[in-house]
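Hypothesis: this fold can be encoded by more than one sequence.
Test: take the structure tokens below, design a sequence, compare later.
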């Protein structure tokens, strides 16, 4: 395995990680922003108000897109296993 092949494998792994985690992180960010705006407007400074809706939104997001996440991971893993003979040469 050459260093460029190792770098390509690492780049692909990092890219796949970002693709899979992006929807969940974006939902958490949007919900956090909405809650922060709500707190700023109403001047309610309750700490649990920020965490509970964010956790619920993230859990719902994972529930709805988990099949997509798993299919992306299975495809990536399949491609990686299939390419092992080409990597080892």
């Amino acid at each position: 395995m050459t260093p460029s092949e190792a770098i390509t494998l690492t780049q692909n792994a990092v890219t796949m990680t970002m693709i899979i985690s992006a929807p969940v992180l974006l939902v958490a960010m949007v919900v956090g922003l909405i809650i922060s705006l709500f707190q700023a407007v109403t001047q309610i400074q309750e700490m649990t108000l920020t965490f509970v809706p964010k956790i619920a939104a993230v859990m719902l997001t994972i529930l709805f897109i988990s099949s997509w996440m798993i299919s992306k991971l299975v495809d990536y893993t399949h491609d990686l296993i299939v390419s092992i003979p080409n990597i080892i040469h």
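Residues 3-88 form one domain. The chain has three helices and no strands.
Hypothesis status: open.
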